[in-house]
């Protein structure tokens, strides 16, 4: 990892982890609800969506703070989706990032409501973005709601559920993942481009790069689920296999999955080439996702 | 009920019931998710929030169609809240408007996701409002997210849950209801005022009227829960008492609750007086809420 990228990761994480809880602490609501929201918001994680967004801003020489509200909205919606996914009626997970899941600590009802509140508040935050025009804010809200809703993440979650126990082809699996996690990652990249005011053509290309990143992320996750340690990944090793879920190594074998990872990594770099954004933090980000051990 | 008001109710309901499902049918997503969303969206109901919004538009001589997107967003968010409230981990209800609840038909996981999708899509809809400026849209999104989120409805739902089995005073009960249902009803009224471009002073007064409407609505609901028939209200009579929930008749007695209803009805009319909006559909609406038998 380059020294610059390491510093950038550190700075971004620090900014998010300082500002994100503040957006929740200032809401006038029940302390129990706030506590449940903050519990999952502060559970850590890689903050990949904010990092992606801010890497785009940096590549276009914008200050990363210009992406603060969108970055925090992304973390809120990502966190709500994890809380709801972990519920007994869904994936029924007891552990998340090495800590008890939200409903294990606060009970199911509060966990459902904490998720609903985070989801709703992410839109409040988007309505309050500084530094951009009203039209740009609305454009971001429109893209964000599509990436997070029935067309994107929520629909992908249902598709994932319906696919459980079924034998999927690699394209079907990629299509489900694309909606479940790819759309929101692609939005993170696209939002950076929108805030930086790049051309529609560059926005389209960056969106495509964001989709590659989503794919890289998921393939690597599946590989880590087989090869990682419980300490590093914060959940039992092999839990996907246990949950009867299709995975890239399950379909292609471990070597096949690694080859697919390498090939999409090349495609991601190719996209950056076309954008004239090689040797930026975006390249470091793709490399980081492929090489991470957690 | 005046002939004009009856026609208005009919016209508004018809518009909503024709257009609302279309906003969902056109989403590109899993048919099962769409089916679950449409099941609850098409379960009927009084469409009180759209009616309130459109009554304000009519009072200011605006076409009711100018409120279509906000009205449908209101119905989506209201419907999501019912789906989540009915879940086994929450109120655990099997019946809603005389029909099996969403999770009884589609299972818990799909019901959770259908709620999430409706909530998310309501914001998409608000980003697409026609007839108003970008600034006005953002203002509506900001008000809407506050009314629906931790500060408003979701927080009220948690407060309601925490209060179960406790002996509440009438002010505590009113404060919980104000957040659980009042904020969104007040938003419906305020949104009408914002779209009609009224003065901030009138917006403030209309918001106060909306809060009175919310209170009237809840007191009347509690009275109907005791006096109504299962055919009319679509759920078992006395289910609040059975669920160990505080109600206005429970605290004040049936006569006391009716007196409170009458007094807040007077206050609602007083607000309309100050606005110069007596003898509009808004007065009919208040009267309708107080006199309804379901």
Automatic annotation (TrEMBL), chains A, B:
Looking up InterPro entries in the UniProt record yields:
Isoprenoid_synthase_dom_sf, Polyprenyl_synt, Polyprenyl_synt_CS, Prenyl_diphosphate_synthase
Give the UniProt entry's GO cellular component terms.
cytoplasm
One family from Pfam that matches here is polyprenyl_synt
Q: Highest taxon of the source?
A: Bacteria
Q: What is its EC class? A: transferase
Decide whether keyword Magnesium is in the record.
Answer: yes
- Protein's UniProt keywords contain Magnesium: yes
Keyword set, alphabetical order: Isoprene biosynthesis, Magnesium, Metal-binding, Transferase
Q: Which Gene3D superfamilies match?
A: Farnesyl Diphosphate Synthase (1.10.600.10)
- Give one GO molecular function term: (2E,6E)-farnesyl diphosphate synthase activity
SUPFAM superfamilies from the UniProt entry = Terpenoid synthases
The cofactors required by this protein are:
Mg(2+)
- Identify the EC number(s): 2.5.1.10
Q: What does the record give as the reaction this protein catalyses?
A: isopentenyl diphosphate + (2E)-geranyl diphosphate = (2E,6E)-farnesyl diphosphate + diphosphate
Question: What's any GO biological process attached to this entry?
Answer: terpenoid biosynthetic process
What NCBIfam families does this protein's entry cite? FPPsyn
Q: Which PANTHER family match?
A: FARNESYL DIPHOSPHATE SYNTHASE
**Family, similarity comment:** Belongs to the FPP/GGPP synthase family.
Q: Indicate what this protein is called per its UniProt record.
A: Farnesyl diphosphate synthase
